[in-house]
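Hey L., structure's done. Input below.
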Amino acid sequence: MAISTSAYSPKEFQVLIAEQDAFGTIEASGGNAYHAIDVDSIGSPSLNPNQALDVRNGGRVLMKTDFFQDVKASVKEISISGTATTDVLDMLLENLMGEAEGAASGVYSLLSSRTVQQIGTGDGSLAGTALSLVFKSGFGTDADLSFKDCVVTNLSLSGDVGTEGGRIKFSATFQTGSVVEDLTDAATTVDTAFTAAGTNNYLMSAWTDPVYRQAVGVNNLLVNSFSLTLDNPASFHGVTSAGYELCTRAAEFSATMDMTVKYDNLTEDMFQVLNNQSTGASQGATKLNHQSALADSNFGISFPSSVLTNVAFNEGDIMMLDLSIKALGESVGSSTAVVEVAC
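Output:
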């Protein structure tokens, strides 16, 4: 066979996302199922097959009869990053916060009272939202990568006034414990293309009122950049021919924020604030929003209770401060939010 003359740009590849109706069954194309994600980069999926490559007794090399592989008891991991558009951010936050499929409430909360969350079981039931992901290849034929029963385990939302005018970007990590749906498919179609402009994008410039640019109780801040990180690990148990039998979330849900703010008379005592925080108490609320309450169709973040975990100088054209903040729950069983995100 002659060398192929075809070549493909990385930008020809697409990532599609859909909410599943049933655990264990990948969502079909059609209607309004698959939304295209406005991706900046596509990481290679980690298939993580279980392989045995040990040389057996009786020889010094690995024989073909010694090789073993199993893909049922393995967790696949997928990472993507891009622009935080409305349609996709709704799906990611629903999944991460444990809201019902199609909720699209616009304001997503994780409460202090949140307990173990079941995502799905091997019998096909679906207690929480699961996602289907498809990597559409530039080849167009028998080259798409399709994954079912995906959950978001890490989501980072960030903005920098020096990058794309402060447009909000995202980076997400997905995991699935089910066997790969298909690595040769080309049948999935884009049902909803991403909108490159207008209300489907979010900008830091929407936070016009400095009263609601707040860190641990200090408001009227000039914010140069921020990065919100939400971690909600998934745990996979049991095994069947279709993969892990149970997907659940039981480890710590963590919400942290890094902010770079101007060093001035409002922030010069942040080192003292960090040093003098009281055990068993919140230092104050942290918020980035256009008004007091978070609202649908407006990007905003709220930590009702929070503490500083680090303060550092950031030398630039003017002196800035890097602040690291962690959200706190109110108490066990409380209905107060740990973190709220609006989009």
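The chain has a mean pLDDT of 89. The radius of gyration is 23 Å.

-- N.
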